[in-house]
From TrEMBL:
Pfam families: 4HBT_2. The keyword Hydrolase applies. Belongs to the 4-hydroxybenzoyl-CoA thioesterase family. It comes from the Bacteria. Keywords: Hydrolase. The lineage of its organism: Bacteria, Bacillati, Chloroflexota, Chloroflexia, Herpetosiphonales. One of its GO terms (molecular function) is hydrolase activity. InterPro entries: 4-hydroxybenzoyl-CoA_TE (IPR050563), HotDog_dom_sf (IPR029069). It comes from Herpetosiphon gulosus. This is 1,4-dihydroxy-2-naphthoyl-CoA hydrolase. SUPFAM superfamilies: Thioesterase/thiol ester dehydrase-isomerase.
Amino acid sequence: MSFQYPLEVRFRDLDGLGHVNNAVYLTYFETLRLHFALELLGVAHLAEVPFILGEISVRFLKPVFFGDQLQGSVDVSRIGHKSFTMIYTIKRGNEIVTQGSTELIWFDYKTQRSVPIPDSFRQQVASYQRP
Ligand SMILES: CC(C)(COP(=O)(O)OP(=O)(O)OC[C@H]1O[C@@H](n2cnc3c(N)ncnc32)[C@H](O)[C@@H]1OP(=O)(O)O)[C@@H](O)C(=O)NCCC(=O)NCCSC(=O)c1cc(O)c2ccccc2c1O
């Protein structure tokens, strides 16, 4: 099962060529990541999200335009000792327009150090895991 969340294309997402600019997809991924984390972890404030972004990749498959109705989804493909991989898929109807992934590292913001992923997260995320 994937975590699903709708994405709105705003006028300011477009560049001079009329399509959604490449940099905006990082924000779309961020929106999906935050809502996934808030729902999954049940945290009340963004400051309580216990991981940090280490790496991001994006594959641009189709141009996206103002008025397109987008649906985003998030899965987890790998959970390591301190880091895990989130997979992002953005669809317009049945068509996949963008795919990507992020490496996220479990992080103690008080000590500013990476820490092992707790077993509780492994259990919480199990239903969103895909090979
Ligand atoms: C990321 C670091 C904390 C890692 O430093 P450290 O020395 O502790 O790492 P280790 O070498 O011990 O490795 C531990 C573990 O992590 C994997 N790993 C390490 N670095 C990376 C990396 N850059 N990319 C991918 N993976 C990495 C390593 O393979 C190990 O994996 P195991 O599973 O085997 O344990 C440190 O480098 C650091 O602090 N970097 C800077 C991070 C940063 O500034 N990021 C940008 C700002 S954060 C951000 O933008 C952000 C946006 C969001 O939208 C978020 C949403 C929700 C939550 C967080 C968000 C967020 O942080």
